[in-house]
Automatic annotation (TrEMBL):
<comment type="pathway">
    <text>Purine metabolism; XMP biosynthesis via salvage pathway; XMP from xanthine: step 1/1.</text>
</comment>
<keyword id="KW-0472">Membrane</keyword>
<protein>
    <recommendedName>
        <fullName>Xanthine-guanine phosphoribosyltransferase</fullName>
        <ecNumber>2.4.2.22</ecNumber>
    </recommendedName>
</protein>
<keyword id="KW-0660">Purine salvage</keyword>
<keyword id="KW-0328">Glycosyltransferase</keyword>
<keyword id="KW-1003">Cell membrane</keyword>
<feature type="binding site">
    <location>
        <begin position="105"/>
        <end position="109"/>
    </location>
    <ligand>
        <name>GMP</name>
    </ligand>
</feature>
<dbReference type="InterPro" id="IPR000836">
    <property type="entry name" value="PRTase_dom"/>
</dbReference>
<comment type="similarity">
    <text>Belongs to the purine/pyrimidine phosphoribosyltransferase family. XGPT subfamily.</text>
</comment>
<dbReference type="InterPro" id="IPR029057">
    <property type="entry name" value="PRTase-like"/>
</dbReference>
<comment type="function">
    <text>Purine salvage pathway enzyme that catalyzes the transfer of the ribosyl-5-phosphate group from 5-phospho-alpha-D-ribose 1-diphosphate (PRPP) to the N9 position of the 6-oxopurines guanine and xanthine to form the corresponding ribonucleotides GMP (guanosine 5'-monophosphate) and XMP (xanthosine 5'-monophosphate), with the release of PPi. To a lesser extent, also acts on hypoxanthine.</text>
</comment>
<keyword id="KW-0479">Metal-binding</keyword>
<dbReference type="GO" id="GO:0032263">
    <property type="term" value="P:GMP salvage"/>
</dbReference>
<dbReference type="InterPro" id="IPR023747">
    <property type="entry name" value="Xanthine_Guanine_PRibTrfase"/>
</dbReference>
<feature type="binding site">
    <location>
        <begin position="101"/>
        <end position="109"/>
    </location>
    <ligand>
        <name>5-phospho-alpha-D-ribose 1-diphosphate</name>
    </ligand>
</feature>
<feature type="binding site">
    <location>
        <position position="105"/>
    </location>
    <ligand>
        <name>guanine</name>
    </ligand>
</feature>
<dbReference type="Pfam" id="PF00156">
    <property type="entry name" value="Pribosyltran"/>
</dbReference>
Amino acid sequence: MSEPSSNAFPVYWEQFHRDCRALAWRLKGVSEWKAIVCITRGGLVPAAIIARELEVRMIDTVCVASYHDYENQGEMQVLKPIDASVIDVEGGEGEGVLIIDDLVDTGKTAKVVRAMLPKAHFATVYAKPKGRPLVDTFVTEVSQDTWIYFPWDMGLQFQAPIAK
């Protein structure tokens, strides 16, 4: 993500849930989804909401890490690839598969996952201009210099993960 700036966009649980449901509405009828692949970690919550709303039962994760300190994007690492049974769900390359993430920022993660599932439909809740061309469906576009604070990142102020 872009480094934190004065363009802060805090998203609270109620708003995030509404935005995820709005994304589900946009995805309803686009295809008969056979599976969801969520990009961890940010895609876990929206994938759960969308899977419920669209009644999709086959859910997998692809674990890609690029932010190792919450500020600077580093080397892309695929920590867990997509299961072959999901890739081949409709004959290969991700047809009938919905990729879900919370945000597309620079598009680096999206490019890695798109290469794994070139025929899948890519959907995010939020999109920034640099990554926007890689996404098929999204709910809200924000400027590239906006830092989105997701509900799981916040208390009354930014909360570092417990493991830190």
